[in-house]
Amino acid sequence: MSDMGFAVCCLMCDAIDEVGTARCKGCIIRHERVRERIARSDDDVSRWGKELLSMLAAPEKMDHDETHGELLRGYVHLINQHEGPRTPPSQEEIDALFAAAKKRPKGSLIQDMANRNPWKDKAPSARFARALSDDLPLGVDVHAGKRTVPSKVIDEVDRSDRVGEDITLTDRVSANAAVQNVPDDIRDLLADAHVAERKAKREKIKDAIEGVDDLLED
Question: Which domain range does residue 200 map to?
Answer without folding.
Answer: 167-217
